[in-house]
């Protein structure tokens, strides 16, 4: 097994050119250029195709429900849902897009793994790394979910080796790791102060040389369990990118792309919405806007992620020059195609006021042929997973929307909260009175229509695992009524949730009003907060169940760390499956009404 990810790379795509700076080398370079490229004007540039995607989350099989569609804006202003995603179709789409392109590089902006459906998650995401190798991914940044199982497991994803506890999954076959580098420029070891993984990567083909810098959001510790980021420091994205852009320039690398696992919020959820109307970048907000405005002009393009949104914007750099900022939604439903004009004399990207062609997000449709190698990969891992994956867990009477629903309260969120409350309500299980569930922990929908041969309305272990893949332990804790109200206010305020609220899903009997016409903490109507009809008493102590991520203050809920008298229960997945297990074909679970949070708009 090779010692570095660089040695893994396919040499047919990455040709290293080492040329001494002499008169003779000038002739060599001229000989390597396309006919006429050494001259002036348009012949001095070549087009480099940059294909990119983000937030794949191990979604090998075509995602179900609303998670398996993208919103498309029509010419008349209406929108429609278009089925999308599935690595068999993504592979075909990327391979088709590369045809006829002499210079093509594929990059990603983090969260390739973590929060994955069962087919990948059950095997600690080895199937996804194998699939990404087959996709010919050239480079990716880390995202927050790459740290779900800690840095040692992330390094195993890169360098290979069988799982330290579960061993090898296939007889006589050892996991070989990624054939592409993971970049983590702003993630440093607290003791050594050095990056935990490579900060940059230089892609070379013929005379073309492009540098990549990869970072994840500085707030990664706020959205990952403490154990996952233990001993690591996450540094400012802009400062880090600017530092390494200068270093790349010193190495003679003038063309630079930043892979940033942080993103923005477009004004429309349609993937083909024009975020440059009425002006450059006018239709997007969120953290990425300030980052884009402050990242050094040496960087030529920003590929972003984290928010699971789709956009292809033009936000001027600090020098006032146009610069593309893109994101391709999530789960492999889209990819972005960007054309970089590479100047063969200056070795830099030529940026003009109007990019031609402009970067575009393309749908991974399911009306193309499936890539046979991906079908074989999926079938192989499905066979290994089948004894567990196909086991029925329970029954539902209809679709129960979760991850794919754009609403503060999600029926599946209510169901999960109810399951956690029921698992811990007994006195000897913690005596929980209410449950809180973070919306980001709901990874999918529950679809009524059968995905396989189990029959409509049957929820298999594979499907329940896809909804709750983290195996977080449930914590039952003491919180005062005042702390509960503060937690509700932290949903819609503070540096993390003020601009992008994270609405907790709540168990039956817990109700309140969310007034979105107001701002910040005032959006919570304090007098409306009730438990089983009784107003919450700020001075009273309540027993509250939540997963260990929330109990550690994750997602900006710092007040939840102030809990007392913690009792650790079963895992969230076990609680969910136990709740499902009480249903029968004759008495399936009805989709919750999602009427616990009253929203004023």
Automatic annotation (TrEMBL):
Coiled coil: none
Domain annotation Calcineurin-like phosphoesterase: ranges: 53-309
Keywords recorded for this protein, A-Z: Hydrolase, Nucleotide-binding, Signal
GO molecular function, a single term: nucleotide binding
Superkingdom of source: Bacteria
Pfam families given in the database record: 5_nucleotid_C, Metallophos
5'-Nucleotidase C-terminal domain ranges (all copies): 403-562
Family of this protein: Belongs to the 5'-nucleotidase family.
Protein name: Bifunctional metallophosphatase/5'-nucleotidase
């Amino acid at each position: 097994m090779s010692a570095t990810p660089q040695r893994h790379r396919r040499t047919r795509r990455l040709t290293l050119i080492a040329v001494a700076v002499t008169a003779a080398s000038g002739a060599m370079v001229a000989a390597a250029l396309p006919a006429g490229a050494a001259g002036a004007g348009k012949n001095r540039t070549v087009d480099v195709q940059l294909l990119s995607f983000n937030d794949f989350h191990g979604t090998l099989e075509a995602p179900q429900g609303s998670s398996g569609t993208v919103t498309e804006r029509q010419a008349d202003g209406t929108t429609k849902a278009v089925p999308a995603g599935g690595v068999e179709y993504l592979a075909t789409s990327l391979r088709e897009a590369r045809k006829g392109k002499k210079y093509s590089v594929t990059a990603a902006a983090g969260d390739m793994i973590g929060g994955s459906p069962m087919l990948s998650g059950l095997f600690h995401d080895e199937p996804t790394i194998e699939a990404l190798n087959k996709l010919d991914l050239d480079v990716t940044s880390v995202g927050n979910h790459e740290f779900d199982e800690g840095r040692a497991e992330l390094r195993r994803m890169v360098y290979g080796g069988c799982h330290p506890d579960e061993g090898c999954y296939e007889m006589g076959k050892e996991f070989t790791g990624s054939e592409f580098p993971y970049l983590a420029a702003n993630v440093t070891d607290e003791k050594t102060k050095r990056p935990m993984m490579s900060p940059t990567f230089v892609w070379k083909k013929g005379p073309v040389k492009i540098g990549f810098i990869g970072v994840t959001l500085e707030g990664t510790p706020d959205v990952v369990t403490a154990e996952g980021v233990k001993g690591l420091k996450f540094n400012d994205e802009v400062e880090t990118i600017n530092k390494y852009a200068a270093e790349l320039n010193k190495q003679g690398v003038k063309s630079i792309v930043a892979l940033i696992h942080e993103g923005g919020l477009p004004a429309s959820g349609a993937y083909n919405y024009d975020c440059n109307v009425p002006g450059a970048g006018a239709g997007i907000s969120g953290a990425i806007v300030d980052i884009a405005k402050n990242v050094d002009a040496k960087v030529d393009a920003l590929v972003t992620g984290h928010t699971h949104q789709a956009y292809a914007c033009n936000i001027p750099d600090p020098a006032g020059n146009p610069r593309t900022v893109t994101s391709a939604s999530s789960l492999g439903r889209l990819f972005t195609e960007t054309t970089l004009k590479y100047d063969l004399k200056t070795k830099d990207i030529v940026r003009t006021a109007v990019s031609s062609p402009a970067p575009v997000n393309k749908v991974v449709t399911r009306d193309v042929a499936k890539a046979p190698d991906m079908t074989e990969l999926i079938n192989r891992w499905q066979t290994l997973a089948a004894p567990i994956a196909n086991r029925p867990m329970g029954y539902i009477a209809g679709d129960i929307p979760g991850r794919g629903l754009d609403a503060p309260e999600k029926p599946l969120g209510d169901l999960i909260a109810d399951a956690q409350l029921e698992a811990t309500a007994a006195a000897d299980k913690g005596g929980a009175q209410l449950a809180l569930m973070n919306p980001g922990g709901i990874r999918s929908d529950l679809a009524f229509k059968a995905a396989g041969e189990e029959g409509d309305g049957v929820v298999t272990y594979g499907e329940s695992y896809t909804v709750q893949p983290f195996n977080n332990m449930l914590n039952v804790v003491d919180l005062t009524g005042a702390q509960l109200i503060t937690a509700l206010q932290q949903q819609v305020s503070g540096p993390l949730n003020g601009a992008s609220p994270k609405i907790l899903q709540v168990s039956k009997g817990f109700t309140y009003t969310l007034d979105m016409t107001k701002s910040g903490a005032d959006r919570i109507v304090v007098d409306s907060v009730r438990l089983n009809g009784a107003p919450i008493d700020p001075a009273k102590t309540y027993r509250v169940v939540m997963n260990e991520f929330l109990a550690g203050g994750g997602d900006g809920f710092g007040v939840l760390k102030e809990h007392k008298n913690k009792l650790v229960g079963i895992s969230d997945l076990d609680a969910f499956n136990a709740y499902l297990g009480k249903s029968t074909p004759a008495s399936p679970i009805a989709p919750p009404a999602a009427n616990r949070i009253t929203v004023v708009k």
